[in-house]
Amino acid sequence: VEETYIMIKPDGVQRGLVGEIISRFEKKGFKLTGLKLFQCPQELAEVHYEELKSKSFFPKLIGYITSGPVVCMAWEGVGVVASARKLIGSTNPLDAAPGTIRGDFAVQTGRNVVHGSDSPENGKREIGLWFKEGEVIQWTPAIAPWLKE
Ligand code: GTP
Ligand code: MG
Fold first, then answer.
1. What is the DSSP string of 12-34?
2. Which 3 state secondary structure label does DSSP give 42?
3. Out of 10, 11, 115, 127, which one is annotated catalytic?
4. With a 6 A CB cut-off, is 110 part of the ligand 1 pocket?
5. Per-residue pLDDT, 65
6. For 85, how many CA atoms within 13 A lie in the half-sphere containing its CB?
7. Which ranges of the chain have pLDDT less than 50?
8. What's the pLDDT score for residue 132?
9. 18-28 and 80-88 helices, crossing angle to 10°
């Protein structure tokens, strides 16, 4: 099954948006399989964002992600990677549609509240980076037949 790594960034935690953001993925119908509050060490932030190492904003990005606790989540479902990116909205919150998380709650790329994996491969890679063995739980929601025929 497809899975994605969703992370509420330090600004989302500081601003009290944790419940609101989790609620959007829950209500959509995806399955939460991993969840923790976590202080990201510098090294993990650098590995997570290694594709952006050459960018001028990289040091600021690492500073941002390590500036306070984040909420790490694994979500599962058919099409969850692309759908979660739609729920999150464009990277620059000023371009993000109203109704998306960034569209509703953010104004700057450097404070865009939430992360979502950009491909199923990166979903698996990132869940492996942020969660330890045993922290991701396989379970069957009792409402499953009401979400999928
Ligand atoms: P993520 O879901 O967090 O990966 O965002 P994204 O996939 O929409 O964007 P991308 O992977 O290209 O960039 C990762 C993160 O780096 C963004 O979400 C921003 O927090 C940050 N970022 C990207 N571009 C800029 C920029 O030009 N300036 C600053 N300050 N941060 C940036
Ligand atoms: Mg990205």
1. HHHTT-HHHHHHHHHHHT-EEEE
2. helix
3. 115
4. yes
5. 98
6. 13
7. none
8. 98
9. 140
Q: Which of these, 122, 129, 113, 130, lies nearest to 68 by C-alpha position?
A: 113
Look at ligand 1, atom 23, and give the residue with the nearest C-alpha: 109
Among this protein's residues, is 115 annotated catalytic?
Answer: yes
73 CA from centroid of ligand 2 (Å): 15
**Ligand 1 and 6: CB distance under 6 A:** no
ipTM of the complex: 0.96
108 CB within 6 A, ligand 1 = no
The Cα angle at residue 13 between residues 140 and 80, in degrees rounded to 5: 35
Residue 34: which of 144, 107, 123 has the closest Cα? 123
- pTM, 2 dp: 0.97
6, two tokens: 């969703």
